[in-house]
Amino acid sequence: MKVAFIINSTRKLSKFATKVIALVDDSTELQGESYYTQSTKHAIEIANQIAFDTDLIVAVGGDGTCHEVINGIGLNQLSKIKLAVIPIGSGNDFSGQLFIKSPEEFLSKILNNSFQLVDIGIVKTESKKTLFLNVADIGFGAKVVELLNRQRNRGLGGKASYAIAILRTFFLHKKAYIELTGDDFEFKGKFLMVAFCNGSTFGHGLVINPDAKINNNKLNITVIGNVSVFAYLLNLNRLKKGVRINHPQVHYFETINTNIKINGEKQWMEADGELLGANVNAISIQPNAIELLN
């Protein structure tokens, strides 16, 4: 089996990652090769180039690296390749939902072909499709990412930058009116944020949809409607605990496909922590899209 490690070179390799790479290199049954990113979006290019001649791609990085890797593989090639994740990035919400505890277990699962079919989300605009592994959201959360990117470009990084971006969003974000149409539901109204969930957790540990699972063949949606920032803050502890928010303006839906129409203030969309823009018109789930080591 050919194993390719796509490594986020802006982060120091963890002991876990270093050990896994060494174990793969020492294995007589595996052929390993490592690729280091040189810039933003480089993982997309690497994955696209090696996807047709690799059995397993290991994304070594955070949620952003995983996002780039699956988009580099591409929707048509996902079923022909396997994926694994080793977290070393700043945002590891997706990998936090996986359950491999040691490098030795990681290797054993590869050798024993212990892969699980998982779903992939698809964000559609007029011009392209973007894949996501974990959570895509529109509104408040995406505005945080937009401000965070600006701050990073100015040299302000780390957890402090994330906290500052959230604080700024409280004052700068303006709600808009959304029309969501799913397979068997419809929602219309003002909203603070809508999260489209393949995984359950985003935003450094906030369980935005406790029902979401990466292998349930559904797109789980959390609508936080016309609530105040203060009401959102009051419920942060529930999100951290993975408990549903009991509020008349918070709604939970399940679907395969959903269409989106927004009126009013411009609303950003992000997926897996990567900013996608503001012209999204549909989001769907592709069930059993790729085999994931888990």
Oligomer: single chain
- The number of distinct β-strands equals 18
Helix- and strand-based class?
Answer: alpha+beta
Mean pLDDT: 92
Rounded Rg: 19 Å
Total domain units: 2
What is CATH's topology name of the largest domain? Tumour Suppressor Smad4
DSSP strand content:
35-45%
- Poorly predicted regions are none
The CATH architecture assignment of the largest domain turns out to be Sandwich
Cα-to-Cα separation, first versus last residue: 18 Å
Largest sheet: 10 strands, mixed
Order of helices and strands: EHEHEHEHEEEHHEEEEEEHHEEEEE
Helix content: 25-40%
Helix run count = 8
Q: Shape from CA axes?
A: globular
CATH class of the largest domain: Mainly Beta
Any overview of this molecule?
This protein is of the alpha+beta class. It folds into two domains: about 1-115, Rossmann fold, CATH 3.40.50; about 130-285, Tumour Suppressor Smad4. It is built from eight helices and 18 strands. Strands 1, 2, 3, 4, 5, 6, 8, 9, 15 and 18 form a ten-stranded mixed β-sheet that branches. Strands 14-13-10-7-16-17 form a six-stranded antiparallel β-sheet. The longest helix has 15 residues, at about 160-170. The model has no long low-confidence stretch (mean pLDDT about 90). It comes from Putridiphycobacter roseus. One of its GO terms (biological process) is phospholipid biosynthetic process. This is DAGKc domain-containing protein.
Keywords:
294 residues, alpha+beta, Rossmann fold, Tumour Suppressor Smad4, 8 helices, 18 strands, globular
Question: In brief, what are we looking at here?
Answer:
By secondary structure, this protein is α+β, with helices and mostly antiparallel strands.
